[in-house]
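> call design_seq(struct)
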C-alpha cells in the first residue's frame, strides 16, 4: 500500500485547500514534515487515517477536532486520498461530521458526513459510497485494521519511548491495543463466567436432589435417610398393598348401599304416584263443573270469526264516503272563488291563456323593479363627473409648482465629484495607519512575552547548570564506590582485574555516605536541558516575530498617531462636503419621483372623468327605454306587478275548480265500488246486514281472553285424561313405610363412606409420593449429567485463568499470548538495534519471577555487550533511548505487518523524537532508516522541528501559522 496524493480543506487548523503529492515528495526516499509545535503537522497524519478508516490516528483523540473552527461555514470540510494497493490505484473522499449553514433561513444544522470510494486504475469505476462497505473494503484490501495501520505507518517516538520504560501492566495495555489481543482477555472472562455458571448449575442440581428427597420422605411420613430412594420404594410398596385391601372392602359396602337405594327409590316412587292420581281426580271434577261456561265462550268466538272478514270492507266503504263528502265541499269552495272573480270561461284553454300572459309580462315586471334603482344612481354619476373634473385641475397646479422646485434643487447639485475621490483616498490612508498601529500593539505584547521568555531561559540555564553539577558529582561518587567495590575483591598475591598488578599498596576506600541516585539525577538533568532548549527556542521565536512585524513599518507610534488625527480631521470636512452634494441630488431625485407620480395621477383622474361622463349618458338612455316598456305592459293597471297578480289569481281559481271537479267525480265512483264490495261479502258469509256483523265482532282483549280460557280448558282435559290412564293400576289408599327404609340406607352409607375415606388417604399418599419419587430420580440423573457436562468447561476455565495446580507457572492465557508476541517484537527490534548500536545493545525479555504473576514475561532490560551486564532501559542516555525506542517501534511494525499477511506499506511516518540525538547518532539513525527504506522500497516521512534534519533533508512539507488569520495554518511542499 502506497500513498500517492492527499488533498484536504477545512480540517483542523487548515481552513483552505491543501494538496500534498507524496509520489513526487518521496522520490528521494526521505522527506521531512517540519513546523513549529502545535502548527498542525499531526493533522496531516490524522487526515490520512481518517480518509481510510473514518477515524484519527490516535486512539484517544476526538474525531470532532477534524472539523475546523476557522473554515468557511458555507463550504463542507473534506479529505481526499489517492493510494495504490494490490496493483490498482484508488481515490477515497470523506467528509467528517460538521456544522453547516441552513439552506433556508438562518442558523446551522448538523451534517453527518459522507464517503466515496473510486477505482482510478486500471478501470475507472465507483466502488461504494456507504461508510460500512468502504470500511470493510479498506480492511480487506489493505489488510490492516485502523489500530494496526496507525501502529505500522505512524511511529510516534514519544509514545514508544514511554513504551520502552513502561511497567509491565502499562506495557500489556499497549500491546493489547496494538495486537488486538483483548479477545484472549475476553475469552478468559467468558470462561471464568462459564465456570461460575457451571458451579452454580452443579449446586442447583444437588439442591434439587435434596429438596425432592425431603418432600417425598415427608409425604410418606418417613424420617431423613442416607439412602432415601430405597426407603421411599419400600414404603410405596406397603401403601399399595393396603390400598388394594381397602378397595375390596369398598366394593362390598357399595353393593349394600346400592340395594338400599333401590328399595327406598321404589317406595318413594309409589308414594309419588299415589299423590299424582289424587291430584288428577280433583282436577277432573273442576273441569266438569266449568264445561258449560267454556262452551258459551267457544260459540262467541265462532260468531266473531264469521264476521271478522266483513270488517275491512266496511272500513273501506266508510272511508270512501268520507272522501266523497270532502270532494263535494272542495268543489263548492272552488265554484265560489270563480264566481267572486267574475270569470266567465273556466276551461283548460282559459287556464293556458292566463299562464301565457303571465309569462309574457315577466320581462316588463323585471324592468319595473330595476327602474327605481337606476334612476337613483343618476345623481351619483353626476357627482363623480364633477369630482373628477376638479381633481384634474388640482393635480395640474401641483405639478407646475414641483417643476419649479426641481429646477432650483438641480442648480444646487451641479458641482464637481472631487470630494468623493478625496474621501476614498483618505479612507485608504486611515486603514493603513490603523493597520500599522495594530502591528505596534502586537509588538508591545511580543516584547512583554520576550522579557518573560528571557527570564525563563535564564532560570532554565541556571537549573541546567545545577543539575549538570549534581550529575558530575554523583558520577564521581559512583566511580569511587565502584573502585571501592573492586578493592574489596582484591587478594594479596592475586592480579588486579583492572591493572593486572599483584601488589595493592593503596586500595580505594568506600565513601562514608549513601551513593546518590544517579539515574534520577541524570533524568533531572535531561529535563533541565530540554527546558533550556525549549526556552531558548521560545526567545528566538518571539524575537523573530518582533523583527518580522517591524520590518514592514516605516514610522514610529507617535508619528502614526499624529497622522491618524490629521486624516480624521480631513475626513470629517470631506464627508460634510460629500453629504451636502448628496442631499441636493437626493432632493432632485425625490422631486422628480413626486412629479412623475403626479403626472401618473393626473392621467388617471382624466380617465376617471371621461369614464364618469360615458357612464352617465348610458344610464339615462337605459332609464328611458325601460320606462317606455313598463307603460306598454301595465295597460289600465297601476303597475305591471298588479296586472300579473290579477292574472295569477284568475289562473289559480280556474285551476282549483278544474281539480275539484275531477276529484269529486273520482271519489263518488270509489264510494259506489266500496258499497257493492261490502254487500257481496255480507251475502257470502250469510249475514243479513252490516249492523249484525259489527255486533258479532269482539274487542281484541276480550277475544284474546276467551281464546286463552278455551285453549287452557282443552289442554287440562287432555292432560288429566292421559294422566289417569297411566295411573289406573295405582291404588291411592295403600300405606307405605318410608322411615325404616331411610334408616337402613343411612347405616349402609356410613359404613361405605368410612371405607372410602381410608382408601382415599392411602391413594392420596401414593398419588403424592410417586411423582415426587419420579422427580427425585430425574434430579439424580440431572445431577450426574451436570457433573459430566460441566467438567470440561471448569477444567478449560481453570487452565485459561491459571486456577489449577498443574498449570505451568500459573500464567493466564492472555499473558501467555502477549509474552509470545512481545518476544517476536523484541527479536525484530534487536535485528535493527545490532546495526545502529554497532553490536553494543540488545533488548532482553526478563522471565524471572514468572510464577504466580498474571502479567509476567513482559519486563524489558537492555544488555550491554561492552560490560556484559543487563540493566534497566531507564539507564540509557537520551540519544540511546531514542534509537532503542525507534528500533522497538520498527520491530513492532514488522510483527504487526507480518501477522497481517506480510502487507507491504510503501509509506512510513516517524513522528518527533530526533531532538535528543547528537550528530553522530543521528547519522547512524539516518543510515538505519535508509536501510529500512531501500530494503523494502519505502518512502519515509520524518515529522520533526529539529534544525539538523532541515539541513540534511531537502524535500519537505513546511507547516506554518498564517500571520494574517489567527488560528489558521498553511503548508508548503518543496520537492
Amino acid at each position: 500500500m502506497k500513498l500517492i496524493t492527499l488533498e484536504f480543506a477545512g480540517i483542523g487548523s487548515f481552513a483552505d485547500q491543501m494538496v500534498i503529492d507524496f509520489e513526487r515528495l518521496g522520490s528521494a526516499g526521505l522527506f521531512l514534515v517540519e513546523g513549529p509545535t502545535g502548527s498542525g503537522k499531526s493533522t496531516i497524519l490524522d487526515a490520512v487515517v481518517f480518509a481510510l478508516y473514518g477515524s484519527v490516528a490516535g486512539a484517544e483523540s476526538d474525531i470532532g477536532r477534524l472539523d475546523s473552527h476557522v473554515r468557511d461555514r458555507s463550504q463542507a470540510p473534506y479529505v481526499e486520498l489517492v493510494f495504490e494497493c494490490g496493483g490498482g490505484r484508488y481515490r477515497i473522499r470523506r467528509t467528517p461530521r460538521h456544522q453547516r449553514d441552513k439552506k433556508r433561513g438562518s442558523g446551522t444544522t448538523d451534517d453527518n458526513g459522507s464517503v466515496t470510494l473510486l477505482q482510478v486504475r486500471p478501470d475507472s469505476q465507483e466502488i461504494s459510497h456507504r461508510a460500512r462497505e468502504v470500511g470493510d473494503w479498506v480492511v480487506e484490501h489493505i489488510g490492516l485494521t485502523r489500530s494496526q495501520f496507525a501502529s505500522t505507518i505512524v511511529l510516534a517516538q514519544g509514545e514508544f519511548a514511554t513504551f520502552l520504560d513502561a511497567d509491565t501492566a502499562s506495557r500489556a495495555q499497549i500491546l493489547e491495543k496494538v495486537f488486538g489481543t483483548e479477545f484472549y482477555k475476553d475469552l478468559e472472562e467468558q470462561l471464568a463466567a462459564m465456570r461460575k455458571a457451571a458451579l452454580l448449575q452443579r449446586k442447583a442440581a444437588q439442591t434439587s436432589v435434596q429438596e425432592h428427597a425431603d418432600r417425598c420422605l415427608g409425604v410418606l411420613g418417613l424420617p431423613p435417610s442416607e439412602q432415601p430412594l430405597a426407603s421411599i420404594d419400600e414404603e410405596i410398596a406397603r401403601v399399595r398393598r393396603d390400598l388394594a385391601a381397602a378397595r375390596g372392602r369398598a366394593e362390598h359396602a357399595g353393593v349394600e348401599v346400592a340395594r338400599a337405594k333401590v328399595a327406598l327409590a321404589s317406595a318413594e316412587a309409589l308414594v309419588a304416584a299415589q299423590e299424582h292420581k289424587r291430584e288428577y281426580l280433583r282436577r277432573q271434577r273442576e273441569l266438569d263443573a266449568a264445561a258449560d261456561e267454556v262452551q258459551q265462550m267457544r260459540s262467541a268466538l265462532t260468531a266473531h270469526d264469521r264476521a271478522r272478514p266483513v270488517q275491512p270492507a266496511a272500513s273501506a266503504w266508510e272511508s270512501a264516503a268520507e272522501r266523497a263528502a270532502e270532494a263535494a265541499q272542495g268543489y263548492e269552495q272552488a265554484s265560489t272563488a270563480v264566481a267572486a272573480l267574475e270569470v266567465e270561461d273556466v276551461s283548460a284553454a282559459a287556464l293556458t291563456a292566463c299562464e301565457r300572459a303571465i309569462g309574457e309580462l315577466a320581462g316588463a315586471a323585471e324592468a319595473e323593479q330595476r327602474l327605481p334603482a337606476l334612476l337613483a344612481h343618476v345623481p351619483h354619476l353626476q357627482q363623480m363627473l364633477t369630482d373628477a373634473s376638479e381633481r384634474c385641475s388640482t393635480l395640474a397646479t401641483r405639478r407646475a409648482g414641483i417643476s419649479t422646485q426641481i429646477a432650483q434643487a438641480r442648480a444646487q447639485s451641479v458641482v464637481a465629484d472631487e470630494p468623493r475621490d478625496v474621501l476614498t483616498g483618505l479612507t485608504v490612508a486611515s486603514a493603513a495607519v490603523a493597520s500599522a498601529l495594530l502591528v505596534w500593539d502586537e509588538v508591545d505584547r511580543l516584547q512583554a512575552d520576550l522579557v518573560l521568555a528571557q527570564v525563563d531561559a535564564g532560570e532554565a540555564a541556571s537549573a541546567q547548570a545545577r543539575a549538570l553539577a549534581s550529575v558530575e558529582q554523583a558520577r564521581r561518587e559512583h566511580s569511587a564506590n565502584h573502585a571501592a567495590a573492586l578493592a574489596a575483591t582484591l587478594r594479596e598475591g592475586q592480579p588486579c582485574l583492572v591493572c593486572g598488578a599483584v601488589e595493592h599498596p593503596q586500595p580505594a576506600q568506600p565513601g562514608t555516605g549513601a551513593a546518590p541516585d544517579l539515574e534520577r539525577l541524570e533524568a533531572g538533568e535531561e529535563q533541565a536541558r530540554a527546558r533550556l532548549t525549549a526556552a531558548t527556542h521560545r526567545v528566538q521565536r518571539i524575537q523573530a516575530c518582533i523583527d518580522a512585524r517591524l520590518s514592514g513599518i516605516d514610522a514610529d507610534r507617535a508619528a502614526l498617531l499624529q497622522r491618524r488625527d490629521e486624516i480624521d480631521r480631513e475626513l470629517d470636512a470631506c464627508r460634510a462636503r460629500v453629504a451636502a452634494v448628496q442631499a441636493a441630488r437626493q432632493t432632485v431625485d425625490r422631486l422628480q419621483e413626486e412629479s412623475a407620480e403626479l403626472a401618473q395621477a393626473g392621467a388617471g383622474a382624466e380617465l376617471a372623468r371621461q369614464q364618469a361622463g360615458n357612464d352617465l349618458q348610458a344610464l339615462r338612455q337605459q332609464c328611458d327605454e325601460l320606462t317606455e316598456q313598463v307603460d306598454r305592459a301595465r295597460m289600465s293597471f297601476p303597475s305591471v306587478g298588479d296586472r300579473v297578480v290579477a292574472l295569477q289569481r284568475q289562473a289559480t281559481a280556474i285551476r282549483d275548480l278544474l281539480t275539484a271537479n275531477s276529484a269529486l267525480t273520482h271519489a263518488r265512483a270509489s264510494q259506489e265500488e266500496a258499497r257493492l264490495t261490502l254487500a257481496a261479502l255480507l251475502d257470502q258469509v250469510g249475514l243479513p246486514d252490516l249492523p249484525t256483523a259489527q255486533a258479532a265482532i269482539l274487542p281484541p282483549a276480550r277475544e284474546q281472553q276467551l281464546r286463552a280460557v278455551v285453549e287452557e280448558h282443552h289442554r287440562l282435559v287432555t292432560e288429566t285424561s292421559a294422566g289417569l290412564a297411566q295411573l289406573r293400576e295405582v291404588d291411592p289408599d295403600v300405606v307405605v313405610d318410608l322411615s325404616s327404609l331411610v334408616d337402613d340406607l343411612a347405616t349402609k352409607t356410613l359404613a361405605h363412606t368410612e371405607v372410602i375415606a381410608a382408601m382415599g388417604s392411602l391413594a392420596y399418599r401414593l398419588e403424592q409420593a410417586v411423582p415426587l419419587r419420579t422427580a427425585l430420580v430425574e434430579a439424580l440423573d440431572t445431577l450426574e449429567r451436570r457433573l459430566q457436562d460441566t467438567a470440561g468447561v471448569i477444567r478449560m476455565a481453570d487452565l485459561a485463568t491459571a486456577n489449577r495446580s498443574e498449570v505451568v507457572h500459573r500464567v493466564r492465557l492472555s499473558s501467555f499470548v502477549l509474552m509470545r508476541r512481545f518476544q517476536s517484537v523484541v527479536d525484530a527490534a534487536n535485528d535493527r538495534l545490532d546495526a545502529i548500536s554497532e553490536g553494543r545493545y540488545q533488548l532482553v525479555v526478563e522471565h524471572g519471577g514468572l510464577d504466580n504473576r498474571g502479567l509476567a514475561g513482559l519486563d524489558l532490560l537492555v544488555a550491554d555487550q561492552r560490560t556484559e551486564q543487563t540493566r534497566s532501559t531507564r539507564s540509557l542516555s537520551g540519544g540511546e533511548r531514542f534509537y532503542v525506542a525507534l528500533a522497538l517501534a520498527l520491530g513492532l511494525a514488522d510483527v504487526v505487518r507480518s501477522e497481517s499477511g506480510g502487507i507491504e506499506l510503501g509509506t512510513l511516518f516517524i513522528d518527533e523524537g530526533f531532538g535528543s540525538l547528537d550528530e553522530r547518532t543521528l547519522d547512524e539513525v539516518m543510515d538505519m532508516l535508509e536501510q529500512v527504506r531501500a530494503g523494502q522500497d519505502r518512502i519515509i516521512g520524518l515529522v520533526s522541528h529539529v534544525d539538523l534534519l532541515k539541513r540534511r533533508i531537502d524535500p519537505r512539507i513546511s507547516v506554518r501559522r498564517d500571520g494574517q488569520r489567527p488560528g489558521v495554518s498553511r503548508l508548503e511542499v518543496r520537492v
